[in-house]
Design brief:
Layout lengths: L6 H20 L2 H24 L5 H20 L2 H4 L3 H24 L9 H30 L8 H26 L6 H12 L24
Helix pairs in contact: 1-2, 2-3, 3-5, 5-6, 5-7, 6-7, 7-8
Length: about 220
């Protein structure tokens, strides 16, 4: 289960374990709680994938682990959000890209993995909308937390919210563009490569999986009969 993961993901998990033990030794309970929560959340995709019998590309797992660690551990324990003005922008942009990829895969399943029946522009557009909608829901969540518990997740101003949504939009655009490139056959490496690997390794979700080993259901003349 962990053997296939990247060395970077393994290194991060090991560092989190050390951080938990160090915080417990020093009696720093808040830091121990955050580190433990971060470790649990970063491991969750691996266990969920195994439970659901879904293959998730190791590169995507690593990106997810980096995002969770950067958001919770570095952002909260080391106060990166206040120390670096651009930290929140990077987090929003990265999450939007990932959500764009997820949105594309979910919609692509509806076409049974046949790239020839999936209109590239429409697929990219709906992937973009999915990622941007998730970003908007997060802003609603922040507003609710601020209103109910007196927090300052939105930092008390409209500019922060709009900046986050703009960054979400840019990230969503990149995610949608990756899906467009994949449908155009440009799936070698990068973000389109992640989509290609997921489709190839999870053929049961894509019934028109190509007989020649390529993803996206390569056209079979027998389908025309």
């Amino acid at each position: 289960m962990f053997a296939d993961q990247t060395w970077l993901a393994k290194l991060i998990w090991a560092a989190l374990v050390v951080s938990v033990l160090d915080a417990l030794t020093q009696g720093n309970w808040p830091a121990a709680a955050v580190a433990s929560g971060t470790l649990a959340l970063s491991l969750a995709p691996v266990y969920v994938a195994r439970w659901a019998e879904i293959f998730i590309p190791p590169s995507f797992i690593t990106a997810t682990v980096l995002f969770i660690v950067s958001t919770l551990f570095l952002g909260e324990v080391f106060d990166f959000y206040n120390r670096f003005w651009w930290w929140d922008m990077v987090m929003h942009g990265g999450s939007a890209i990932g959500l764009g990829l997820i949105g594309f895969v979910l919609i692509f399943m509806m076409f049974q993995g046949n790239r020839y029946t999936a209109p590239p522009i429409a697929m990219a557009f709906f992937s973009f909308c999915f990622a941007l909608a998730m970003g908007a829901l997060w802003e609603v969540f922040e507003y609710g937390m601020d209103s109910l518990f007196g927090l300052s997740m939105q930092r008390g101003n409209l500019d922060d919210t709009m900046r986050d949504l703009i960054i979400d939009g840019l990230g969503a655009l990149i995610g949608g563009a990756a899906g467009f490139a994949y449908l155009k056959g440009l799936e070698y490496g990068g973000l389109p490569g992640i989509i290609d690997e997921f489709v190839r390794r999870n053929p049961r979700f894509f019934r028109r999986f190509g007989d020649d080993g390529r993803s996206g259901g390569r056209h079979d003349k027998r389908d025309d009969k």
